[in-house]
Write a structure and sequence with these properties.
The chain is α+β, with helices and mostly antiparallel strands. It contains two helices and nine strands. The chain has one domain. The chain is globular and about 35 Å long.
């Protein structure tokens, strides 16, 4: 367990350093082997491989932190939370969401709502957790 936590911390530090130093485009990313290693470390939950972006409807994209976006995307009649950052293969998988009225729930029962000001509000059973500001395009702009 201690080794896994250590690897996770190192991967977060590397992701953060790279994310802040590289311009935001799909082409500017760390080597694929690094992305694969990080994906193995972070892939908790029920990730689903998604079709190419042209076959999805992007309902909105928000800047989660510098160098990382979160989108809510629709494929057929299903909804997914999709994250993108400096790794080449990000955006190819998503976490399933269930839509209830104007909110989306993930498998942990966290709620995501588009707020009046365009931000994405994140809520848990205790109330508001955080907000993400809207981002133009699916790749990070800031």
């Amino acid at each position: 367990m201690r080794r896994k936590v250590g690897l996770l911390v190192r991967a977060l530090v590397v992701c953060s350093a790279i994310g802040n130093a590289v311009p935001a485009t799909a082409a500017s990313c760390v080597p694929p082997d690094a992305a694969e290693r990080a994906k193995k470390e972070f892939s908790g939950g029920s990730l689903v491989r998604l079709p190419e972006l042209s076959k999805r409807k992007v309902l909105g994209t928000w800047l989660r932190r510098p160098g990382e976006t979160t989108s809510i995307e629709k494929v057929g009649n299903r909804y997914f939370m999709v994250s993108r950052n400096r790794f080449c293969d990000t955006g190819s998988v998503g976490w399933p969401l269930t839509k209830h009225g104007e909110q989306y729930l993930d498998e942990n029962r966290d709620q995501y709502r588009v707020l009046r000001d365009g931000q994405l509000g994140v809520f848990d059973d205790q109330g508001p957790v955080e907000k993400y500001k809207a981002n133009e395009g699916v790749w990070p702009n800031g």
